[in-house]
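Objective 1b: paired records.
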Amino acid sequence: MIEPIRISARQVLYMLILVRTVPVLTLNPSIGAGAAQDAWLTELFAIGIQLIMAYFMFKLAYRFPKKSLYSYCEFILGRYLSKLINLGYVIFFISVSATLLNELAQLMVIAFLPETPIIVFIGMAIIATTYAARSGFEVIARLSELLFPLVMAIYLLGVVTSVMDVDLDLIKPVLAQPPEVLAKASFVSAAGFMYVAAIAVIFPNITNQKGMRRLAFLGLLLIGIINSLITILVIGTFGPAQAKAISFTGLNLYRYVSIAGIIERLEPLVMVIGVGTIYLKISIFLYCAVVGIAHVFGLKNYRPLVLPLGTIIAGASIIMFPSFAVLTDWLAAGWVVQNYIFELGIFLLLLLVALVRNVPDTRRGFHDE
């Protein structure tokens, strides 16, 4: 099922940057993966891994530019096997949504309102995200346009006001960690790029498809630089040991911001962009999940599915992650494996099957270069 909507490559780029940069302000995976003072380097190394993930997705997308992920999966694998893969992607999107929902709720409870039951934040988020997903992807894309300049302004403010407090000796010696530790941390960080499959779902709706790959690659380079810079600020302010022990590193960084002794403790601003961006991400993946269900079962309208699936995601978020420790363990292990299977492994498999079976492409004069 492909909705008759049109979104621009610029809007997709905004969503890509928001999806990958803001998590560094909350849970920074590279610091927790043992890279210590070299965590900022792993954010740069992760760029190469993310480019590979995006490359295989775009190879398929440009081969079938008028088909979504669900459609060309059926075109390549056949009717029955594709249903299994497509249902796998639906479960993947549900799992990602449940993870993000719990991360948001834990952020609010631990950092701001510890006396409030976590179900309150989960319920509020589901109401907002189901409304956005039901309204259509164009609404979600416009939300990214609203959030993007605000997020970039907050980043710039944090960098300008924190840079004088950074002790560069805390990030030395450079490359002190063994190569296997840096490699593991890089793969963990790159696993956060869970937007590949979402782009594949909405690709037929992008107006200027030919320039999308170039924009995405430039966006990934920018993301790596931003994440690396924020990680340097965090480690240079707290030190590698304390940064690893802090639950929400970037958030705590903004607590030390002081502008002429007048404007201080800017973490509420980080909370606003963090909440808004996680709402955006959950809306994206909820939309992709309901569209997938509609495609698999041949439904003409996905909207009646949004609220029931949102309720399922809320329940899954509570059941899967009964505590913050369970969430962090999942992000360090199961999350990584899951994301590489659905963001890289299956795309590579589909491309190989298409080449081996000589599945004809549907571009009809369309060129991606």
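Objective 1b, second protein:
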Amino acid sequence: MKKILSFFAIAALVLGMASCNGNDPEAGGYVPAPSKGELNGVFSVGNGKQVRFSQGNLQYYVGAPGEGEKWSFAVHQYDYLGYDANQKINSTPPCNIDLFGWGTGNAPRKVSLNTNDFTTYAEWGNNKISNGGNEPNFWRTLTKDEWVYLFYDRTNADVLFGLGSVNGVNGTILLPDNWVWPAGASFTASTKQGLVDRGDDYYKSNGNNFSHNTYTKEQWSVMESAGAVFLPAAGYRKDKDVDGVNSGGYYWSASPSSEDDVCYIYFDSYFLDPLDNCWRYFGLSVRLVHELPKTDGLYVYPTTLPQAQEELYGWFELSYGIANYLNYQMGEADKAAELELVLETIQNKYGYELPTDINEIITDIDKLRPLCEPYAKSYFNYEKVLNVSDLNDLLQPDDGNDIKQIIKNATFQISQLEWDETKYVSQIFDLLKQIDKIIETAESAVEKLRQ
């Protein structure tokens, strides 16, 4: 019995994601809850590619000798460290900075006016962020194409951003794809207040565009809870000189534009350019994102190697059971043979070792999924049966005694079956047909269980 329970548990783990609904009109599908350090809003930055922004700009602290170092996010979106802190970038520790030379994830205090000192890109998001989950490789920097997509190419892009100020700090406001107005909040896109799209930037020559949207801390809290992002105008650093604080925002992309230059997003009180470029040795702000798992609306792809290996193993186990089901229960030997051939081909490629390349794993999962998913319904229902003890707790004595007893009897019969390669799956699916009808009757109770 242990083998079949393990098999169904893995099947539920792998396929259970298929019932989720997304909140992105472009990509659709499953959207997981925010992780530590992530804001609520979901933003499309490419076709089918979604991200969440970190809770604030990236900061780096190195203490006095013996105190160590720490990467973290600003506590609030409108926080920045400003002139004094960043001018001490290579002073004797302790020091705290948030304006970084390009690609200095492995050397955050590097200072130079030679672009050749910044030829190799080290991603900041590869580090453990203390208040961002504290796991390596969880975060990353947007590319130039992703910044452009955010401001130009996603649905309604031109009305989902605006210049403004929060708690007296000037900056740019970004609204998520599925923006829903929170009660008591106000926002006006800068393109509705005279900021003109000139094809590769937005421009308005007169007036202070930071006045388009003004929020107190309390008002911004309402906006943030609805998913809004704020990029503060934290200025820039050249060598150890800092300028433009609270008047200009300069945010790195991960994309070089030439041997010496890198693309970045720039904005001030009359101008916003998501595709500007500057020398690599400048110190600019870094706002990291976490890319959401790729989804086709049914299945959420794994994003880490251990998760991918576990899921591929789960698909193996699921495929074996469905192949038996097709052979002995449904009499569809041709479909069973097709599935068995795919399984054999994949396993011959790796032998007894699971693959160590996540892209190879996803390719193999995509070979098994279309063959398995049409037969997954009974597996879902079996997973509901496995939760029978919790179901009993939810059902009151007077609203499900007959249902509980039938489920109890059916699961008892399954537990008494002896493993037989040719008969076991067939017997289980005979019982599952009965349980399917029971589950339909008990659906309201199962819905409570899920909640």
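The radius of gyration is 27 Å. The longest strand covers residues 271-279.
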